[in-house]
Amino acid sequence: MPEKPNLIAKHINYKIATKVILSDIDLSVHRGEVLGVVGPNGAGKTSLLKILSGQVFCQGSVFWKQKDLKEYSEMQRAQQIAVVNQINDSVFSLNLQQIVRMGLLPHSSLISRATPDDTLRIAQALEKVGLTEKAQQTFSSLSGGEQQRGLIARALVQRADLIVLDEPVNHLDVYYQHQVLQ
Question: How many whole angstroms separate alpha carbon 84 and alpha carbon 157?
Answer without folding.
Answer: 12
